[in-house]
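F.,

This is the one I mentioned.
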């Protein structure tokens, strides 16, 4: 009996080892393919002077918002993989904290596999789109070319809701359940996964606005003539542009109200006021960028100043416990994961710098057709969430 038991253990160990090797190999392969595709796209753009031609600049200003949606998504997944890596390295039982079923949690290699696999799919579609645009034989199929980003969205959505036991179905359904709880706040009891996900959404306002651009661009038929003027000049689009930026902060506000009603914790009420101040700042800033004017500028500056002070105080004092000089770790909270305390202070500074840079990218440019502004948004959003 002992012999068979030992054989079974060795077989199980061998199976787990092979799975890890396969996952690591596939993740590395997808990463290499992603780098190759990025290099090919850059070479194609510069070799054909795509950014120098006026018509092609219009093409890039239309296409980039469509594909940048996946850029924000991929960078956020990469950030999550980093979180999982450090949680595992410093022995944080994240599967128990988030309520994953035993044995179903993803390690950082599996998250990287999904991230790089998705990046290969995205970059392949972008390269195909670019080649079809530049190839004289396929230039007559512009409507089909413009439909490639929409097809990519449909494929990703279908993979997310696929009912079959593939592509980590348990984790996908767990994520969709948390999304539903966020959308229905405050009807559900607020758990750690729910408000953690809602907090992540607050850093993905631009992603949500890109979703709105998808709906407008393809819903109103602008893709047939490759002209986003209908969207940018529509009053309905401008109103939704404001509302959709408020949704993540409103969800967090409702979650704070639900937690306050359950525990009568005044801290939750103050946290809710913090999100209300952020909502006021986002609305006033967006209206100012759309309409301009001295009065709107003063209102936007005032609300932004209040929200910045409120959020900075909350991040440093309540979240980071910067002013807790009587704690076991001076100026930090009592319990720390990382042994090197200087990492926390460096992360605080970098987080606030990137947070302000993110606000600048939102406020200093009024139009969507500034390509450099769109490129700048990606690293600032990514870096701010890594250090925040």
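My design for it:
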């Amino acid at each position: 009996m002992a012999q068979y038991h030992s054989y079974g253990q060795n077989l199980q160990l061998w199976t787990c080892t092979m799975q890890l090797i396969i996952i690591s190999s596939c993740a590395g392969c997808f990463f290499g393919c992603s780098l190759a595709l990025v290099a090919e796209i850059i070479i194609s753009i510069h070799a054909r002077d795509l950014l120098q031609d006026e018509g092609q600049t219009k093409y890039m200003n239309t296409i980039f918002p469509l594909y940048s949606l996946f850029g924000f998504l991929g960078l956020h997944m990469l950030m999550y993989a980093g979180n999982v890596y450090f949680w595992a390295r410093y022995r944080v039982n994240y599967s128990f904290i988030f309520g994953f079923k035993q044995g179903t949690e993803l390690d950082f290699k599996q998250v990287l596999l999904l991230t790089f696999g998705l990046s290969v799919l995205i970059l392949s579609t972008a390269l195909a789109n670019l080649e079809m645009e530049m190839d004289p034989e396929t230039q007559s199929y512009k409507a089909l070319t413009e439909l490639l980003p929409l097809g990519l969205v449909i494929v990703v959505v279908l993979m997310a809701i696929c009912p079959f036991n593939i592509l980590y179905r348990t984790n996908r359904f767990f994520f969709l359940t948390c999304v539903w709880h966020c959308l229905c706040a405050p009807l559900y009891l607020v758990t750690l996964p729910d408000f953690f996900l809602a907090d992540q959404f607050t850093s993905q306002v631009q992603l949500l606005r890109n979703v709105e651009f998808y709906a407008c661009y393809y819903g109103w038929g602008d893709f047939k003539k490759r002209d986003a003027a209908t969207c940018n000049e529509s009053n309905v689009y401008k109103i939704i542009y404001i509302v959709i930026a408020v949704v993540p902060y409103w969800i967090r506000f409702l979650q704070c109200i639900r937690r306050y009603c359950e525990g009568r914790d005044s801290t939750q009420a103050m946290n809710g006021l913090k999100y209300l101040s952020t909502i006021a700042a986002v609305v006033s800033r967006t209206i100012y960028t759309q309409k301009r004017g001295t009065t709107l500028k003063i209102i936007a500056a005032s609300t932004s100043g209040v929200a910045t002070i409120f959020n900075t105080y909350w991040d440093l004092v309540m979240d980071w416990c910067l002013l807790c000089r009587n704690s076991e770790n001076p100026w930090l909270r009592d319990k720390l994961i990382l042994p090197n305390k200087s990492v926390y202070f460096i992360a605080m500074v970098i987080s606030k710098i990137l947070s302000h840079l993110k606000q600048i990218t939102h406020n200093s440019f009024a139009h969507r057709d500034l390509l450099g502004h769109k490129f700048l948004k990606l690293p600032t959003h990514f870096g701010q969430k890594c250090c925040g």
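The chain has three domains: 15-161, 176-310, 320-388.

Talk soon.
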